[in-house]
Each structure stands twice: as C-alpha cells, then as structure tokens.
Design brief:
The complex is a heterodimer of chains A (about 475) and B (about 290).
Chain A (H helix, E strand, L loop, with lengths): L14 E11 L8 E9 L3 E5 L6 H7 L9 E8 L2 E2 L5 H7 E4 L12 H11 L4 H15 L14 H13 L5 E5 L7 H18 L2 E6 L11 E6 L2 E5 L29 E10 L9 E9 L3 E5 L6 H9 L6 E6 L4 E4 L12 H6 L2 H4 L3 H11 L14 H14 L4 E5 L7 H16 L3 E5 L3 H7 L2 E6 L2 E7 H7 L6
Parallel strand pairs in A: 3-8, 3-9, 6-7, 7-8, 13-17, 13-18, 15-16, 16-17
Antiparallel strand pairs in A: 1-2, 1-4, 4-5, 9-10, 11-12, 11-14, 18-19
Chain B lengths: L14 H16 L3 H19 L1 H25 L6 E5 L2 E4 H27 L2 H11 L1 H30 L6 H33 L18 H26 L16 H22 L1
Antiparallel strand pairs in B: 1-2
Helix pairs in contact in B: 1-4, 1-8, 2-3, 2-4, 2-9, 3-4, 5-6, 6-7, 8-9
Classes of the chains: A alpha/beta (about 475), B mainly alpha (about 290).
C-alpha cells in the first residue's frame, strides 16, 4: 500500500526532480501557465501528478526535457538528479530522462518492433555489442521477445504503449516522465502497463512521474501524489481520497426507464449478424444478436479488438453484413468515431458546426446556441485541432447533435477526458435520452457506463456474451467492474 | 493477407539475394527478345506462385493481360514501321511487326512487375535495411519510418471516408462526391501534420541527432558460404548477360521479324530465371 515520502528529511541533492521558482508562459498568452512553482520529487519515488485538462501538466513535464520543451518564456531553475537541465546535452538528456507520450501511435517511429527498440541506442551511437545486450535484456524484462520481429502496426494499443515504454527504457534512464500514458488503453491493458511501470520503479529503482487526470488505477502503486492547480504544485497527503468515485450527474437525473421485456419498442436490432472485412480475414462478428431499445442508453463493453467499433460502424450503415439482418426504421443515425478528428474538416470550431447547415437546414443562431450549451463559446474561432481533447470530443458530439439524429452511435465518448468533461458528456447523453433518442456507445470507461447507461452488453469473441440492465450487470461481474 | 514462407536465400547475407534480384531485373528489362521475355515471364510467374500462391497470382492476370493487350494495340498506332500490313485503320497501316513489338513490350513490362513482387520477398525489408543500415543509417531510418507512415495514411483515409459515409446526413450528387474527396485530403493533411509534430517530439526525446554517427542494430555476417554463393551467382550472371546479348543482337523486329530457332543458349537463361521457383520447390519438399 502507499506510503507518503517526507521529503523534508531527505537531503536536497537526493531529489530526482527539484524545481524552484518556475514561471512559464506561452508566447502571446495573457497569463503564465505555471507561476512560481516549487516541486520536489524524491529519488526512487512513484509520483502521480494530477490536474484537469489544460492545467499545465504536460507543459511542466516537457520543461524538464529542453529538447521537447515548448516555446515560451521561462524563469526559475529545473534540476534533475542534481544537474540543471539546461546543462544536459541531447545525448545526456536522452540517457537520463525518459519521456513517454500519450498517444502510442504517434511516438512509434519505426516499422518493426526490433528497430523501434534500437532507435534510441542507434541515435546515441551505442556500440553494436552493447546495444544488442541492452535490447536483449530489456526485451526479456518486458516479455517483448515473443513479438520482437513483428511490425509495429500489427500490435494492439496496449502493446504499442508497452513498446514505447520499453524503447525509452533501453537507454536506462534514472527518471521516467509519462504524460497520460494509459488514457488510450482499455482497462486490462492499463493494468498491464501500470504493472510494468511498477516493476521498473521497484525493481530497477527508476524514479517514475505519471501525469494523469484519472489517478484511480494508479494510487496503489504510487508513493506520493501531487496536484497542479493554478500553476502551482502541492502535495496530496490523503492519497486514499483519490480512489473515490465522484458522481458524474446529480442523483435525481440518473433515474432511468430501465424497463425490461419484449414489449419495449426497438430502435434497431441485429439478427444472426456475421461480418468480416474481406474473405481472407477472420470473422469479426459471428452469430451476433442485439436488441437496442428505444430511448435507452445502451453500452457495449469488452476488450480491445472484440468487435465493438465494427458493430457501431455497421449500425451506422457504413458497411453491409455478410449474413444476417440489421433491422432499423428509417431513422437518422450518426456515428462518433473513436478519434473525433476523423469528423473535423473546417478551420474553426464554428465553421465545423456549420458544415452540414446546407443539407440539414439549421442556421448560425442555432449553432451559437449549441456552442453556448457546450461551453465552447470562447473557442468558436479556434481551430478544432487546437482544442483540448475534451473540447474536441464535445465539439464532435455537438456537430452530431445538429444533425438531429434519432440514434447516436458513440465510440469511446469519454476517451482521454477529465472528470469535468466526462460529466458534461454524461449530461448531454441523459438529455438526449429524455428527448426519446437512443444511444449505443462502446466504452472502456466502466465508471461512466455504470453511472449513465441503462443496459449493458458485454462483447466477447465477436458475439454478445450477455445483455443485462446495468445494475444486474455490475452486481454479477467479478473482474469487470469499475 | 497471410504470408507464405519463401525458402530462397533465406539464410544468406543480404548481398546475395540483392545480386540475384538486380541481375534478374536488369536482364528482364534489357533483353528485348521474344523467347527471353517469355522465359523471364514464366520464371517470374512461377516465383510468384510460390510466394503468393497460384490463386492470387492468377488473379493478378486480371490486370496484367489487359495491360499487355493495351500496349500491344497502342504500339502500332504510334510506330508505323514494319513490312507486313495486317489492315488499315483509316489512312494508317497497322503492321504485324509493330503489333509483335508491342506484345513483347507488354510482356516485358508484366515480367518486370512480377519480378519486383517476387524480389521484394527474396530481399525482405529487413535485408534492405541491413544493406543500407551500415552505409547510410539515416536513409535506412527514413525508409523504415516511411514504410510505417504510408499504410497508416491509407488506413486513416479509409477510416475518414467510413466516418463520412456513416453519418445519416443527406449528400447531393456528383459535386458532393468531389467535395468529399477534397475534404478527405485536407483532413488527412491536417491530421498527418499534427501527428508528425508529436512524432518529432518523441524522436527528439530519444536522442535523435545527438550523436555524430548513428550505429545500427542489424548484424549480418558475410560468411564463406556467402562468398561461394556470390561467386557462382556472378559467374552465372556473366554467362546469362552474354547469352542475352547474343540472342538480342540476332533478333530484329523491323523491318521483318527474324526467325526464331532452337538454341542451347536458352537453357542456362531459363535455369537462371526458374532458379527461385525450383529452389523453393526443393526446400519445401524437405519440410513435407
């Protein structure tokens, strides 16, 4: 269980990170992101750094590595392992400080796993024999030896992130900084990743700092926790409190139809559905039956690659089933893709919402009202890509709402969102249900599912393993619970 | 797609398959003589049957045969030489020689394409990297990175189109189809650019460009076996080149097609071209 480090007792040079009087502001920003920030992380600690989206967690971590530090004005001193970071050259920084990013796809550089593992050491000009030894060792440590020869694209998200971690660790850094490393992973992959981190921390003595807005899964591993609020870091003494689940919506709103039985009208049904992408590949959906009741929020849960996204895309009508039937009335169905950027094409958030105004006949006034409802009025003229992850998600949902759909199909609607944004999404969905709209969502966020959904289906191996009302579902589950 | 094993030059130093593939491609593309083209085409076809299986190789004929036909039919339209008039197309004479030349060109084109496909399996990506890696590590890395980016780009394109198609929003007519493609490319560009910024950070974080010279992980040792194989291969290559030169110098398309005769020189050439398929057959039986 966790224990709190008292860093007043440890002598100053022993700190893995010592930040003093740090102030940082982005160019053209009115106020600094970080103000007179003081922060000490003891050597060998497993530290969690929490804070909402946009609080400056990523900025703080990247400032510790000048090679990836954002442009802006900086004051104060940043000392890592007793050395000022400005005095570290590129090679020393790569050796001493590892940095793992949020998106597993974008931090993998090479085409094959072995080359990715070698990338850092090749950059550093490590002699071949030493390089091969380090890579062999690290691969055994992470159990990568089984998939060492595979191409990086064929890996699951969890393995990709594990590879990103391993390929950083071959250089044997003494400090490892991770920026939302598990926000793209399913619950099982997240556990695996955290376990690897835990072993690195305890067995190799590497100091680990994880920035996250969902610390619940990590509290058991952590030795200390910090919160970044208003540009300053403060230590969290009561780490148990981070395990608490906060309600997303007021209790009275969660009262749901929760009606069962055959007499509930269906928005759409799959009957004996079979689907695969081409003749050579295996079935993604097999013998699948699913009834989605009207005016319900129906959640699909299950591991990565079990066919959830495919099922949603099929329900949206993007492809045809090979066998079986999709029965749906002539209702308007819209799909929120896993990455909202697949939906964006315009230069500003406002134009984005206006993209379909011609076909669907809504006006600027309606769009302004929606922006206000989503709390994005200030961001109307911002490029969609410059919005935070949560704002992007809300904008995408808003765009779909303007199409006045009867059925919403949502793929991971809360992926990478902080508590505030999640609660906003929850409100939007409950409102839709109140208006008689149907929602089918695939989600790894079991906490969100439990609080928002009416019915839950567990998918496994291309089939629906079970469909139950949400309370029964979570009451009976042994492993799969928030 | 499932990859079948291809038991040719599997354990050799990459220089050996590289030598074979380069010589074969040069011979195929330079030897403009019907029999040599036919031999090369058969060899390439056989090699592809081993690599991809007969079914998908035959399926490839769906685009290959039309290409041969198109080149064969277009050549007479552009080069009006020869002596045997087949028919007149308006005021233009279509000659047998010209048609044959086009046919040979088409065959050559398809044979080269097939050899490229088979060659990519003999000289796998890893082996190319090993060849490059020691000489030009940065080029090797760029190739590796590009190999990852292209399929990703294509996949993402499909994904965006699928998302566009999945919205129950009415679209109207052909203008919209063009518009949606334009939209796709702009989304892809923006998204790709965004990703590349992140990737650049990930590269810098792991010491990209920090050492004056990159080292490489891959280690292929050039062993005695490889010296032996390379020597035999080079000798055979010299023989085949000489034979091809003789055969080509004795054959003319214009003004009259030369007569083809039975000649011993075709046998070593055929042996060279059929080598991968034969080797594969022998090695596969060993595992059977």
């Amino acid at each position: 269980m966790s224990e709190t480090f008292d860093w007043n007792e440890t002598p100053a040079p022993a700190a893995a990170i010592a930040v003093e009087g740090l102030t940082f502001s982005y160019p053209q920003a009115k106020a600094p992101v970080l103000r007179d920030l003081n922060w000490k992380v003891p050597r060998g600690a497993f530290a969690i750094l929490v804070g909402g989206t946009g609080s400056g967690k990523s900025t703080l971590l990247s400032l510790l590595k000048p090679q990836i530090a954002p442009a802006g004005t900086r004051e104060g001193s940043l000392v890592v392992g007793g050395v000022d970071v400005d005095r570290l050259d590129d090679a020393q920084s790569a050796r001493n400080i590892g940095h793992v990013f949020q998106n597993p796809d974008n931090q993998i550089v090479c085409e094959s796993v072995w080359h990715e593992m070698a990338f850092c050491l090749e950059n550093l000009g490590t002699p071949q024999d030493e390089m091969r030894r380090l890579i062999a060792e690290t691969s055994y440590f992470f159990g990568i030896d089984d998939w060492f020869r595979q191409s990086t694209d064929s890996l699951s998200g969890g393995r990709k992130q594990l590879l990103a971690l391993a390929s950083t660790l071959v250089a044997q850094p003494s400090l490892l900084l991770l920026d939302e490393p598990t926000s793209q992973l399913d619950p099982v992959a997240e556990r695996n990743f955290l376990h690897a981190l835990f072993r690195i921390n305890r067995e190799l003595g590497c100091t680990v700092v994880v920035a996250t807005h969902a610390p619940r899964a990590m509290v058991d591993y952590a030795t200390c926790a910090f919160e970044l609020v208003d540009g300053q870091v403060r230590e969290i003494s009561d780490m148990e409190a981070m395990c608490m689940r906060e309600p997303l919506v007021d209790a009275d709103k969660t009262v749901s139809p929760r009606v069962r039985g055959e007499d509930v009208p269906c928005a759409f049904t799959f009957e004996d559905a079979w689907f695969r992408y081409d003749r050579e590949s295996p079935w993604v959906l097999r013998n699948l039956d699913l009834r989605v009741a009207k005016a319900h929020i129906h959640a699909l849960v299950g591991g990565n690659g079990c066919g959830k996204s495919t099922l949603l895309a099929l329900a949206a009508g993007s492809s045809r089933l090979q066998r079986g039937k999709l029965r749906a009335e002539g209702e308007r169905r819209v799909l929120l893709p896993q990455d909202p950027r697949a939906l964006f094409a315009a230069e500003t958030a406002f134009d984005e919402l206006m993209e379909w105004s011609g076909q669907l006949g809504y006006g600027e006034e309606e769009t302004h009202r929606l922006l206000e409802k989503l709390g994005l009025t200030a961001q109307g003229s911002v490029h969609p890509y410059d919005l935070s992850g949560g704002q992007q998600q809300l904008l995408a949902i808003g765009k779909l709402l303007l199409a006045k759909p009867d059925v919403l199909l949502l793929d991971e609607p809360t992926k990478g969102l902080d508590a505030q944004a999640r609660s906003k999404v929850a409100h939007v969905l409950l409102n839709l249900r109140a208006q008689g709209k149907t929602v089918l969502m695939a989600s790894h966020d079991l906490d969100f599912v439990q609080q928002v959904a009416d019915t839950v289906s567990m998918m496994f191996d291309g089939e629906i393993a079970s469909t139950e009302p949400v309370t029964t579902f979570f009451a009976n589950n042994v492993y799969y619970r928030p | 797609m499932k990859q079948r094993p291809f038991y040719v030059f599997e354990t050799s130093h990459p220089v050996v398959p590289a030598c074979y593939v380069i010589v074969t491609l040069c011979l195929t593309m330079a030897a403009m003589q019907p029999v040599l083209i036919a031999i090369s085409l058969i060899g390439a076809f056989a090699a592809n049957c081993c690599v991809r299986g007969p079914r998908s190789t035959l399926a490839g004929l769906r685009w290959q045969l039309p290409i041969i036909a198109i080149i064969a039919l277009f050549n007479p339209l552009f080069s009006a030489s020869g002596s045997t008039v087949l028919f007149y197309l308006g005021a233009r004479a279509v000659y047998l020689e010209s048609l044959m030349y086009g046919l040979a060109m088409g065959g050559l084109f398809v044979a080269s394409a097939l050899w490229f496909m088979a060659g990519s399996r003999m000289l796998t990506f890893d082996k190319v990297m090993a060849l490059f890696g020691n000489v030009a590590p940065v080029v090797a890395l760029m190739i590796s990175s590009t190999m990852r980016m292209i399929p990703r780009f294509v996949r993402r394109g499909h994904q965006i189109l699928a998302v566009q198609g999945a919205q129950g929003v009415p679209t109207a007519g052909a203008v919209d189809a063009v518009k949606s493609r334009l939209r796709l490319s702009s989304v892809l560009m923006g998204w790709g650019m965004e990703d590349s910024l992140e990737m650049a950070d990930a590269m810098r974080a792991r010491g990209w460009g920090s050492a004056p010279r990159r080292t490489t992980y891959t280690r292929y040792r050039f062993r005695a076996r490889d010296v032996y194989a390379l020597t035999v291969l080079l000798l055979a290559a010299v023989l085949c080149c000489a034979l091809a030169m003789v055969a080509c110098s004795q054959f003319l398309f214009y003004p009259v097609l030369s007569r083809l005769v039975v000649w011993w020189g075709y046998v070593p050439y055929a042996a060279w071209m059929l080598f991968p398929a034969a080797m594969h057959a022998v090695r596969s039986r060993r595992f059977a």
